[in-house]
Design a protein that fits this description.
The structure is a single chain. By secondary structure, the protein is α/β, with parallel strands linked by helices. It folds into three domains: 3-109 and 239-305, FAD/NAD(P)-binding domain (3-Layer(bba) Sandwich); 113-236, FAD/NAD(P)-binding domain; 325-418, Enolase-like, domain 1, CATH 3.30.390. Helices cover 22% and strands 29% of the residues. It contains nine helices and 28 strands. It has helices at 11-22, 48-51, 64-69, 128-138, 151-162, 178-195, 291-305, 370-381, 401-407, and strands at residues 3-7, 28-33, 72-76, 80-84, 89-92, 97-99, 102-105, 109-111, 122-123, 143-147, 166-171, 199-202, 206-212, 215-221, 226-228, 231-234, 238-240, 252-253, 255-257, 263-265, 268-270, 275-279, 284-286, 317-322, 325-331, 338-345, 350-357, 360-367. The strands form seven sheets. Strands 3-2-1-7-21-20 form a six-stranded mixed β-sheet. The structure holds flavin-adenine dinucleotide. Residues 7-13, 32-35, 42-43, 45-46, 79-80, 106-109, 125-126, 152, 241, 244, 272-273, 289-292, 294, 318-320, 451 line the site of flavin-adenine dinucleotide (FAD). Residues 3-298 form the FAD/NAD(P)-binding domain. InterPro entries: FAD-oxidoreductase/Apoptosis, FAD/NAD-bd_sf, FAD/NAD-binding_dom, FAD/NAD-linked_Rdtase_dimer_sf, Reductase_C. This is FAD-dependent oxidoreductase. Residues 442-451 have a biased composition (Basic and acidic residues). Keywords: FAD, Flavoprotein, Oxidoreductase.
């Protein structure tokens, strides 16, 4: 194997290239990336970069000298347009081709768009340039509407609130982050946002964007109401960037469909957000849009290219930061999983929960509980029996401050500095009790938590 090509020069592509070199592979390495910027990290884009806490350069993953040490033919600003498997070549938009003996596909995902996405004032957030443009738009006190309350939408809302902006989030599901963690954790996320003065409009759809003179002026909702807006952020999820692979003969379902070793075809592997593979630890096919997975899967792919022949069967990890709350999760969160609070108390703004499915612990979640969730991770690794938690109390309305309010009882007093319940007096009026319905419905999650 003399030539390896990597398509996608971000977290997964860069890690695959670095791992090959670290493990002593000395052949001709080509890394092709559609963006002209050197590889950078995406998680800070919706957090530190947006609020201005970091300058954009700080998201850069490697210095130019680190990249030079890779001894790679780094083709930044060049998009792959087609894959010729029998001819062992990747065609680029500039008309040239890159030959390979083995290939790593690491092209990630592309954000979903809507008619009107190109209007002035409408923003997507996937790239550093997107983040820089959105950050500039947030200066000057605009009214912000975020469409979609998954990871990305809720993080953008939190960042915009941190800048004291007026923010409304539109979400068709009953609670935020429902796909990731289900209704019950979603209700706590809703409470967190309302406590910080974000308006939530759950259970409503976006009918269309309102415009005047080529600029967005607001959003019209399915219930007939219109919200004025100067900035609209579309956080509608993303689709695998596989357009360039159409007609190649690879199986393209929800991403590049690989085997348990992340192999899509002989000598062709996929890693990161674009890859779908059966994870033997959970006995289910998955595609993850999580930063840690991009690194781990790319390392596994590089190892398999060098002959490891090892199935990739990780316990997924991901996190999200919103206001002063960090939610961390290990494992998977199937829609029909049971959930138990196993440490702390939601009303204290710090707890850990375990998720059980088919008699096993399959996921653990920490809400401002990093130490506990790291310890609990072992249960997911060991596929511990769910019966261990049978006697543990479930998260019920009475276990959350939200639920206590609904029941008309008083919340437990808080310690100073606790993250929940610090509603600035001027924002209390923004809470909309009508949106709280459905918060204790049965948990529904998927094992893929799209951002
Ligand atoms: C705003 C934001 C915040 C996030 N926050 C978190 C977080 O808090 N926690 C977490 O776990 N995860 C987070 N994520 C997800 C995480 O960043 C991704 O899982 C990770 O970046 C995936 O890496 P990747 O290399 O697979 O894909 P990407 O980072 O998407 O990289 C793919 C690269 O391939 C390039 N490409 C695409 N098509 C082509 C082509 N045809 N030819 C050449 N190049 C191409 C793209 O331009 C891109 O540079 C966040 C993502 C975003 C966007």
């Amino acid at each position: 194997m003399k030539r390896i090509a990597v398509v996608g020069a971000s977290a997964a592509g860069l890690t695959a290239a670095e791992t090959l070199r670290r493990r002593g592979w000395d052949g001709h390495l080509t890394v092709i990336g559609a963006e002209s910027r050197p590889p950078y990290d995406r998680p800070p884009l919706s957090k530190q970069i947006l609020t201005g806490a970091w300058e954009p350069e700080r998201a850069t993953l490697r210095s130019l000298s680190d990249l030079a040490r890779l001894r790679a033919d780094l083709r930044l600003g060049q998009r792959a347009t087609a894959l010729d498997i029998p001819g062992r070549g990747v065609r680029l938009a500039n008309g040239t081709s890159v030959g390979f003996d083995a290939l790593v596909i690491a092209t990630g995902v592309a954000p979903r768009r809507l008619p009107g996405s190109d209007l002035a004032g409408v923003h997507l957030l996937r790239t550093l340039d997107d983040a820089i443009a959105l950050r500039a738009a947030l200066r000057g006190g605009p009214r912000v509407v975020v469409v979609g309350a998954g990871f990305l939408g809720t993080e953008v809302a939190a960042a915009a609130r941190a800048m004291s902006l007026e923010v409304t989030v539109i979400e068709p599901r009953p609670v935020p982050m429902q796909r990731a963690f289900g209704d019950r954790i979603g209700a706590l996320v809703a409470e967190l946002h309302r406590d910080h003065g974000t308006r939530l409009r759950c259970g409503v759809t976006l009918r269309r964007l309102r415009r005047a003179g080529g600029r967005v002026t607001g959003v019209e909702l399915g219930d007939g109401t219109t919200l004025p807006a100067d900035v609209v952020v579309l956080a509608l999820g993303a689709t695998p960037a596989t357009g360039w692979l159409e007609g190649s003969g690879l199986r393209l379902g929800d991403g590049v469909e690989c085997d348990a070793n992340c192999r899509a075809a002989p000598g062709i592997y996929a890693a990161g957000d674009v890859a779908s593979w059966p994870n033997a630890h959970f006995g289910t096919r998955m595609r993850l849009e999580h930063r840690m997975n991009a690194t781990e899967q790319a390392m596994a792919v590089a190892g398999n290219l060098l002959g490891d022949a090892a199935p990739f069967a990780p316990v997924p990890y991901f996190w999200t930061d919103q206001y002063d709350t960090r939610i961390q999760a290990y494992g998977i969160f199937p829609p029909d999983a049971e959930m138990r609070i196993v440490h702390g108390d939601p009303s204290e703004g710090r707890f850990a929960a375990a998720y059980g499915h088919r008699g096993r612990v399959v996921g653990v979640l920490g809400w401002n509980a990093p130490r506990q969730v790291r310890t609990l991770r072992r249960l997911v690794v060991d596929r511990a029996p769910w019966t261990a938690f049978a006697a543990t109390r479930a998260l019920s309305p009475a276990a959350s401050r939200h639920g206590r309010r609904a029941q008309g009882t008083r919340p437990r007093p808080r310690r100073a500095g606790q993250p929940l319940g610090r509603t600035p007096p001027q924002n209390r009026g923004l809470n909309n009790p009508a949106n709280r319905r459905g918060h204790i419905a049965s948990g529904r999650e998927t094992d893929r938590a799209a951002r």
